[in-house]
């Protein structure tokens, strides 16, 4: 999945736009900075999709966000301390995609926790209803997530398998391919790149 080794300026622009979108989504108070508080709030949004007694999946998601913040702070050492600007976030994420080992661990924790929390019937996949409900809880409008679900359901089964969802997340964060279905993870990227 980590194929963002070289990309032309148009696909780089697409990747930067994705990172900017994530920054805006995560900047919970809209002050133009990411802080530990923003990450705690995002983690809480994700964790809220799990049942209250689902300690395992709640812990996986919390740990994923904690690791993500740790990667950002470590990469931003010597600049703005416990605050990260949009420019720094995009720069750091660009670096993370070139050598994504640690970031893959971050994504895996969040993905495993989400799938485990949402796959209530235990069939190893997410229905469109489960997918849309999840994204609604974390601030993505249902119209957006419904369209995304259709694009991410690569085999047309009406369900997103663990592998399809994981592939989409990795494509969104770690690929600059303008045709990757994972670009639709949190909405249309049309007009970008």
UniProtKB/TrEMBL annotation:
Q: Which residues form the EF-hand domain?
A: 14-49, 140-175
Supply the Pfam families for this chain.
Answer: EF-hand_7 (PF13499)
**Which is an annotated GO molecular function term of this record?**
calcium ion binding
Q: Cross-referenced InterPro entries, in alphabetical order? A: Centrin_CML-like, EF-hand-dom_pair, EF_Hand_1_Ca_BS, EF_hand_dom
Alphabetized UniProt keyword annotations = Calcium, Repeat
- Keyword Ubl conjugation listed? The answer is no
Q: Which PANTHER family match?
A: CALCIUM BINDING PROTEIN
Record protein name field: Calcium-binding protein
Lineage, highest ranks first: Bacteria, Pseudomonadati, Myxococcota, Polyangia, Polyangiales
């Amino acid at each position: 999945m980590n194929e963002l080794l070289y990309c032309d300026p148009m696909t780089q622009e697409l990747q930067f736009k994705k990172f900017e979108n994530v920054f805006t989504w995560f900047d919970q108070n809209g002050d133009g900075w990411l802080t530990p508080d923003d990450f705690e709030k995002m983690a809480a949004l994700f964790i809220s999709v799990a049942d209250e007694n689902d300690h395992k999946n709640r812990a996986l998601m919390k740990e994923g966000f904690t690791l993500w913040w740790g990667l950002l702070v470590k990469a931003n050492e010597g600049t703005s301390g416990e605050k990260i600007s949009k420019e720094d976030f995009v720069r750091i994420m660009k670096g993370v995609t070139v050598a994504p080992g640690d970031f893959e661990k971050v994504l895996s924790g969040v993905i495993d926790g989400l799938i485990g929390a949402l796959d209530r019937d235990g069939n190893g996949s997410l229905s469109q209803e489960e997918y849309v409900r999840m994204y609604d809880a974390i601030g993505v409008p249902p119209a957006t997530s419904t369209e995304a679900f259709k694009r991410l359901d690569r085999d047309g089964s009406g369900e997103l398998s663990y592998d399809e969802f994981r592939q989409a997340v990795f494509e969104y964060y770690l690929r600059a391919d303008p045709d990757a279905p994972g670009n639709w993870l949190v909405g249309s990227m049309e007009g970008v790149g």
